[in-house]
Write a structure and sequence with these properties.
heterodimer, A: mainly beta, twelve-stranded antiparallel sheet, five-stranded antiparallel sheet, 14% helix, B: alpha/beta, nine-stranded mixed sheet, two-stranded antiparallel sheet
Chain lengths: 436, 394
C-alpha cells in the first residue's frame, strides 16, 4: 500500500489548546518530572519549554487526513505505535494565561522498514505553534509564533516474540558479584549510603584502598572510614573486547581512577563511548544500579564542559505520572496488560516524559535564567519500570551572541538495556551579572 | 636469599634433567598422567630413576598432589615436598626450593613439575565468575563487578599506563611477539613451529583487551614439564653437563597483589621482578651485559618490555627501542625466548622456559646462542614471582 499521497497534507488544521496555560498543569508536570526549576513557579512563571506539546494534546483540530493515514496503516496490519524522535524549537517563553494555537502537516511517510521492533512506516509530522495572552484580553489574531515541534512515530507490526521458555525469556545475565567479607563490609555499607568510602590510618594518616585491616605504611590497625569527595582522574584504562561477559554485551571501558584523596579504585566510566575515556580525563563519582542486588560506584566524565550525572529511578509512578502530565493516554504507558498485547514486556515511558526529563536535566545544570531554545531527541531502547535512567551530557559548541552565550549540549540517557535517549539541546545562557 | 646480602645458595645445586610431554591443545589424558609422563621423561634425561627421587615441588595451582604423582610415577619415600603460590610466578621458585633442599641436605634429588590441560580443560582466560570471601577472593572482588575478569585485562591496565607514560603506542609490543614466533618457527616442539608472524600481522590482529591484541597474548596449552635438581657434586656424575643454579630468587613488592597491583607506585614497572633482579645480580655476581640469553616470562608482551628495564638491560622507557631494533632476536643484543616462549612454543606456566635455559647452557637448543654459558630465566610477571641464573659448570 502506498501512503505517499498523504505527504504534505495537514494533520491538524486550526488546532486550539483546550486549556489556557495554567499553574496546576505546570505543577503536575514539574512534580512528575521532579523538576524544581524556580522559573516555573511564582507570579512570573513560564511553562517548562519541553511541555510544549502537552498543551495541544486532547485538542480539537486533528485533520481527517491524519485519521485516514493512521487508519490505513492499521488496516495494513501496522497496529502498534511508538514515538521515535521529537524535535522542538522554542521561539519564546510561554506564560500563564496564554492560549496555544497550532497547525500541523504530514511531512513524510516512509516506505516500509524493518526495525528491531518490527516492520513499519515512519510518519513524521511538523507542528507550528502560536499563542496569545487570552487572560490578558488578547485575541487569536494577536497570536505570535511560539515554536515548532517535529514528531516521528513508527506504526509497526511487532516482530515475532520468541515463545516463553525459549532463549529470549531467560533471565538477563548479571555482572559478577563483589566479594564482601568482614574486612571490606564498610565499603559496601558506604555504597548503600551513597558514599565511596576509603580508609585512613589513624596512626600515620595514610589513606588506603583497597580495604584492609591494617596500614601498609606503619602497620597500625587503627583506622577510620572517610567518604571520597568524588573527584578523580583516569589513571589508566582498557577496553575489554574478548571474552565478552554476557552481562556487558559490547566492548566496554574499565578505568583505574585516582581519587582526589590519593587512592585509586577500578571502576567503569559510564555515559560515554569507551574510546572517549582517556588517561587524564577528569571524572566525577556517581552510583549506578545494575540489577536488584547490585549497585556500584561508577564515574562520569567530569570537567567544566561536562554536565554532572543525573540518575532518575524509572518507577511505575514516574512513567504513568509523566504520561498523564503530558496528556498522553496511550495504553502502553499505563496499562501493563495492554502493553503486553502490543508486544512490549511492560508499560514504557512516553517520549514526552523523556523529553521533559531532558529539559529538566539541562536546566538543572544551566540554571533558571537560561533559556532552552531547542530540544531534539531520538529514542533508542525503551524505558521500563524497575530500571534507572542515567543522564550524562557535554557542551559541544559555545558561541557568543548579542543575547548571551548560546550553548549546544549533547545529552544521553542510558539504562540497563542501553541508550534510551540521545539528542542535542540548545540553551541561551545569560551573561554573568545579567538576567534573562 | 636475602633482600640485603648475597646468599649462600649460589652454585650449590644444578639442573640435571628436563622432560616434557608434547605440547598440544587437547592432550586426551588426565593432568596426572601428563605429570607422570613428564617425570619419567626428565628422570630418563637425567640418567636417574624414580627410586633416586626424595623431594617434589610444584605449584599451588597444580591439581596433582606430590604424593599422587609420586605414587603413580614409582617414587617412594619423600623427605621434602612443597608447593609455591601465585600461578606462573612459582616457576623458578620450584627450582629454588629444590636447590635449597639439596644444599641443606634435606633432600638429594628433587623433581619440580607442572602439568595441566589448560586448553582442553580449565582455561585461565575465560574470566572469573565468582570468588569466595577470603582475603584473596576479596582482592579480586574489587574489579570483578566492573568486568575486569581476565589476566589479559589486568595486564592491559598496567600496559596502558606504561604506553601513556612513555608516549608509546601498542605497536611497540609487536617486536616481542615477532621475536618469539620467529624462534618458535624453527623449534619442532613448538606449537607454532614453522609459523612466524610479521609486525603487520601483529598490528592487524584483533583486540583482546585494548591495548592488548590477540598476538600479544600467549597461547593456551595442554602439557607437562619437569625439571630435576640435585647437588652440583652429584650432577657432575650424570650424563649431561650440569646447568648450575648460580642464583635463585623470589620476589614480592610492597603493596603487592596477586595480579591486581593497581594501587601502588607508577604502574610502569614490575617492582616484584626488581626484587628478584637485585638478588640475582648480587648472588651471581653477574651484570646484565654478561648474560648470553634470557628466557623472559611472556604470557603477555608488555611485561617482557618491563622486565628488560627491571633487570637493567636498558633504561626505563627504553625497552621498546631495545626490542624494535631486533635486540630480542638471535644475533641481537639479548636473544630472548629462543624456544619461542609461551607465545610460540607452549604455555606451561614458565616451566618450559626453565628447560630452554638448561638447553642453552648444555648447548643443545634448536636456536643455540653460540657459547652461551650464562642464562637468565624468569617466572610469572605481574604476580609475586621468581627467577634463576643458570650457568655452565666451568
Amino acid at each position: 500500500m502506498n501512503f505517499d499521497a498523504y505527504q504534505g497534507l495537514p494533520s491538524a488544521d486550526g488546532g486550539v489548546a483546550p486549556d489556557l496555560v495554567n499553574a496546576p498543569m505546570i505543577r503536575h508536570w514539574c512534580e512528575a518530572m521532579g523538576d524544581a526549576n524556580p522559573a516555573y513557579t511564582g507570579p512570573d512563571a513560564v511553562a517548562p519549554p519541553a511541555m510544549l506539546q502537552a498543551w495541544t494534546m486532547g485538542s480539537s483540530g486533528r485533520s481527517p487526513h491524519y485519521d485516514a493515514l493512521l487508519g490505513g496503516l492499521e488496516q495494513a496490519g501496522y497496529r502498534s505505535v511508538v514515538a521515535t524522535d521529537c524535535e522542538q524549537e522554542y521561539l519564546r517563553p510561554l506564560r500563564i494565561g496564554e492560549r496555544v494555537l497550532f497547525d500541523a502537516v504530514i511531512e513524510s511517510v516512509s516506505a516500509a522498514k524493518r526495525t528491531a521492533l518490527g516492520t513499519g512506516h515512519f510518519v513524521t509530522t511538523r507542528t507550528d505553534l502560536r499563542a496569545y495572552d487570552e487572560a490578558g484580553g488578547e485575541k487569536p489574531d494577536d497570536a505570535t509564533p511560539l515554536g515548532s515541534h517535529r514528531f516521528r512515530i513508527l506504526k509497526f507490526t511487532p516482530a515475532e516474540r520468541p515463545p516463553a521458555g525459549s532463549e529470549g525469556e531467560q533471565p538477563r545475565p548479571l555482572r559478577p558479584r563483589p566479594v564482601v567479607n568482614r574486612d571490606n563490609a564498610g565499603f559496601w555499607d558506604g555504597v548503600a549510603a551513597g558514599e565511596l568510602r576509603f580508609q585512613r590510618c589513624e596512626e600515620c594518616g595514610t589513606p588506603r584502598f583497597p580495604w584492609l585491616p591494617g596500614c601498609n605504611r606503619c602497620g597500625s590497625d587503627r583506622w577510620r572510614a572517610e567518604a571520597a569527595s568524588g573527584d578523580g582522574v583516569v589513571y589508566s584504562r582498557v577496553t575489554v573486547h574478548h571474552p565478552m561477559p554476557a552481562a556487558f554485551g559490547r566492548p566496554y571501558a574499565v578505568a583505574l581512577v585516582e581519587l582526589a584523596e590519593g587512592v585509586r579504585i577500578v571502576a567503569n566510566v559510564v555515559g560515554v563511548p569507551p574510546e572517549q575515556v582517556g588517561i587524564g580525563t577528569p571524572v566525577r563519582l556517581g552510583f549506578q544500579r545494575f540489577d536488584e542486588e547490585l549497585e556500584l560506584p561508577v564515574f562520569h566524565p567530569g570537567g567544566p564542559d561536562r554536565l554532572p550525572p543525573l540518575r532518575v529511578p524509572l518507577t511505575r509512578t514516574l512513567i504513568v505520572a509523566g504520561a498523564i502530565a503530558s496528556r498522553d493516554y496511550q495504553d502502553v504507558h499505563h496499562d501493563a496488560e495492554l502493553a503486553r498485547v502490543k508486544g512490549a514486556p511492560d508499560i514504557f515511558m512516553n517520549i514526552l516524559t523523556t523529553n521533559g526529563l531532558v529539559g529538566r536535566y539541562v536546566t538543572d545544570w544551566a540554571g533558571p535564567d537560561a533559556r532552552v531554545e531547542a530540544i531534539a531527541i531520538r529514542l533508542g531502547v525503551p524505558a521500563y519500570p524497575g530500571d534507572e535512567l542515567q543522564f550524562g551530557g557535554e557542551v559541544v559548541r559555545r558561541s557568543d551572541e548579542p543575547a548571551g552565550e548560546r550553548v549546544e549540549l549533547a545529552v544521553r540517557g542510558t539504562n540497563r538495556l542501553g541508550v534510551h535517549v540521545s539528542g542535542t539541546v540548545q540553551v541561551l545562557m545569560p551573561r554573568k551579572g545579567e538576567h534573562a | 636469599m636475602s633482600l640485603h646480602r648475597a646468599d649462600a645458595l649460589g652454585g650449590r645445586a644444578a639442573v640435571v634433567g628436563i622432560g616434557a610431554t608434547e605440547f598440544s591443545k587437547d592432550s586426551g589424558r588426565s593432568e596426572l598422567k601428563l605429570a607422570v609422563e613428564a617425570v619419567h621423561a626428565a628422570l630418563d634425561d637425567a640418567g636417574l630413576t624414580p627410586a633416586d627421587v626424595d623431594g617434589m615441588v610444584s605449584f599451588t595451582m597444580d591439581t596433582n598432589p606430590e604424593i599422587t604423582v609420586a605414587q603413580a610415577a614409582g617414587i617412594g619415600e619423600l623427605s621434602f615436598f612443597s608447593r609455591i603460590h601465585y600461578g606462573g610466578g612459582a616457576a623458578c621458585a620450584t627450582v629454588q626450593q629444590a636447590a635449597m633442599a639439596v644444599a641443606t641436605g634435606v633432600a638429594e634429588v628433587v623433581v619440580c613439575y607442572r602439568a595441566f590441560n589448560e586448553r582442553s580443560g580449565h582455561r585461565f582466560g575465560s574470566g572469573l565468575q565468582a570468588r569466595q570471601p577470603s582475603a584473596e577472593g576479596a582482592a579480586m572482588g574489587w574489579t570483578m563487578p566492573y568486568g575486569l575478569l581476565t589476566p589479559a585485562s589486568w595486564v592491559a591496565l598496567h600496559a596502558a599506563r606504561y604506553l601513556h607514560t612513555y608516549g608509546l603506542g601498542p605497536e611497540v609490543f609487536g617486536p616481542v611477539a615477532v621475536a618469539d614466533r620467529r624462534h618458535a618457527a624453527t623449534n619442532p616442539a613448538a606449537w607454532f613451529y614453522q609459523r612466524p608472524i610479521t609486525l603487520e600481522e601483529h598490528a592487524a590482529s584483533r583486540w583482546i583487551v585494548e591495548p592488548l591484541r590477540l598476538l600479544d597474548c600467549c597461547q593456551e596449552t595442554d602439557g607437562g614439564q619437569v625439571i630435576v635438581v640435585t647437588s652440583l657434586e652429584r650432577a657432575r656424575d650424570l650424563p649431561h653437563p650440569p646447568a648450575v643454579i648460580a642464583a635463585a630468587a623470589q620476589g614480592a613488592g610492597r603493596g603487592q597483589e596477586a595480579m591486581t597491583s593497581f594501587y601502588r607506585d607508577d604502574l610502569t614497572g614490575l617492582p616484584e621482578m626488581g626484587v628478584v633482579a637485585r638478588q640475582l645480580w648480587r648472588t651471581s655476581g653477574l651484570r646484565p651485559e654478561e648474560i648470553d640469553t634470557a628466557v623472559l616470562y611472556d604470557h603477555f608482551t608488555p611485561f617482557v618490555l618491563m622486565q628488560l628495564e627491571e633487570f637493567g638491560f636498558c633504561g626505563r622507557g627504553e625497552a621498546a627501542d631495545f626490542a624494535a631494533g631486533g635486540g630480542l632476536e638471535l644475533g641481537g643484543r639479548l636473544p630472548v625466548n629462543t624456544h619461542g616462549g609461551q607465545l610460540g612454543e607452549a604455555y606451561l606456566h614458565g616451566m618450559n622456559g626453565i628447560a630452554e635455559g638448561v638447553r642453552q647452557v648444555r648447548g643443545s637448543s634448536v636456536n643455540q646462542v653460540a657459547g652461551a654459558s650464562k642464562v637468565l630465566v624468569t617466572a610469572g610477571t605481574g604476580v609475586p614471582t621468581s627467577g634463576l641464573v643458570l650457568t655452565a659448570d666451568r
